[in-house]
Specification:
It is a single chain. The chain is of the alpha/beta class and 477 residues long. Helix content is 48%, strand content 14%. It is built from 20 helices and 16 strands. The longest helix is centred in the N-terminal third of the chain and has 33 residues, at 107-139.
């Protein structure tokens, strides 16, 4: 949009002359013959700059200036005064004017002061936007990012935080699922209670029940009376991280707690009330886990009243500069280093890299570079080799050219369509054949197949759904 200017002067010739002098530039210009008319037009026209004559009847310039600055989004005001009245103009600047120009003015001087005012306004607006970004980041704790994907995460946090619905957070390792859970708790009515995390993948299956429910004395050899994580989280939030790794038998017991809100300690028979909010997280595709009978379908729907999807870092690369700057400042303070920034080329390498370990990998990489840096700037020479030597995507073997050509010709012959129309559909068919070959080779093992393809397990599971491929068909009996 072109900058907008309003000229406030009771003399028609003065307004006409200023408008003509500024007409060379691409400005939208409005006029007002006095302060009263100006105050009516400014809220509607929304000018960036106002040229205000100080000597006007009905409402003088100083009064008009004060009233303009009381508006919600006032323009920058440049006062116009008669030659020899510079003292009055200076006084007006103390009352909120940006600058002044004296009549008769030089046309080039007028244009320069206008350009300077617009540059000043641009800087002011950039500072406001920066403060808004900082406030946004501060308001979401350790979650960093302003991409559309992260905006959706923030929106979900705000919507679900002050309720008691169960939330399932999904995403690859290192994307920040626990940070989301903590932020939901921090914003909830349970904030005075504890946030209690339990990593279901790190607790052995034979110990997870006592870890969650606690134990009564004598429940097993040397057992002492002990509260579990459920009781510890009373009136607060229990975060079941990596719930997809929980055993099926334990899943049934968690389902009972979710349904009945009561449980018994291991070895006990007294029911304990579970006044707890449940938030779960997993890096697994639970739809696939249900198909493979590794996860209970009834528990899945119970923990997933609302789901929050954490995007992988490669899908929000616009956030990498912000994250890198945040971690740089964090680790400079931690390790007492004085590093100013990351070079543009170094930053571009960070943006281009695929980050299989997501934000956690980026965080660790920045810390390593801060610790090892010998100067006050991080350059591409300081980056790890896997980032600078083009390892942006893992390579994998392809089918032979004969396989591809045969598949293509068969598709054209079968569907009787042109090259252009067949292209998209063929790619889908090719993907299906290629993935099925790898699944057969690994006897339906999704993890091994994903490793061969060089993609995350969750990405392969998503592709299997898209292509309607059932990995269990290739499992060796």
């Amino acid at each position: 949009m072109n900058p907008k200017i309003i000229i406030i002067d009771d003399e028609y010739n003065a307004r006409f002359g200023m408008k003509k002098a500024l007409s060379k530039e691409k400005y939208e210009i409005e006029e007002a013959e006095n302060g009263i008319v100006a105050l009516e037009k400014i809220p509607v026209f929304a000018p960036d700059i106002a040229f205000l004559d100080l000597n006007m009847p009905q409402m003088n310039g100083i009064t008009t200036l004060q009233k303009i600055n009381e508006l919600e989004n006032p323009p920058l005001v440049i006062v116009v005064t008669a030659h020899g009245s510079e003292k009055i103009a200076v006084d007006s600047m103390k009352k909120g004017a940006y600058d002044y120009i004296a009549k008769p003015y030089d046309v080039e001087e007028l244009r320069i002061i206008t350009r300077n005012a617009l540059e000043k306004l641009s800087l002011l607006r950039e500072n406001i936007q920066l403060k808004e970004k900082i406030n946004l980041q501060d308001s979401f704790g350790e979650l960093i990012g302003e991409s559309k994907a992260m905006q959706r995460v923030y929106d979900m946090i705000q919507k679900v935080a002050n309720t008691d619905v169960t939330v399932l957070i999904t995403g690859e390792n290192g994307t920040g699922k626990e940070l989301v859970a903590r932020e939901i708790h921090k914003r909830s009515s349970r904030v005075k209670g504890k946030f209690v995390p339990v990593n279901c993948a790190s607790v052995p299956e034979n110990l997870i029940e006592s870890e969650l429910f606690g134990t009564e004395k004598g429940a097993f050899t040397d057992a002492r009376e002990r509260k579990g994580k459920l009781e510890e989280a009373n009136k607060g939030t229990l975060f079941l991280d990596e719930i997809g790794d929980m055993g099926v038998n334990m899943q049934a017991k968690v389902l009972r707690v979710l349904n009945d809100r009561i449980f018994e300690r291991l070895g006990g028979n007294i029911s304990v009330e579970a006044d707890v909010r449940f938030i779960s997280a997993t890096n697994k595709d639970l739809d696939i886990e249900i198909e493979e009978e590794n996860f209970r379908e009834d528990l899945y729907y119970r923990i997933k009243v609302v789901d929050v999807v954490m995007p992988p870092l490669r899908e929000r690369s616009t956030d990498i500069p912000l994250l890198a700057e945040h971690f740089l400042r964090l680790f400079c303070k931690k390790h007492k280093k004085n590093i100013e920034n990351i070079s543009p080329k170094g930053l571009q390498f960070l943006i281009d890299y695929c980050w299989p370990g997501n934000v956690r990998e980026l965080k660790n990489t920045i810390e390593k570079m801060v610790v090892l840096a010998d100067s006050n700037k991080i350059t591409e020479q300081d980056l790890p080799e896997n980032i600078t030597q083009g390892n942006f995507k893992k390579s994998y073997s392809s089918p032979s050219s004969d396989t591809i050509l045969n598949l293509w010709q068969n598709y054209i012959d079968t569907n009787k369509c042109s090259f252009k129309n067949a292209k998209r559909a063929f790619v889908r068919e090719f993907e299906k054949v290629f993935i099925v070959e790898k699944l057969k080779k690994h006897q339906g093992n999704i993890t091994q197949t994903a490793n061969t393809l060089g993609i995350p397990r969750q990405s392969l599971q998503q592709k299997l759904r898209e292509l309607a491929i059932n990995a269990r068909e290739f499992t060796k009996e």
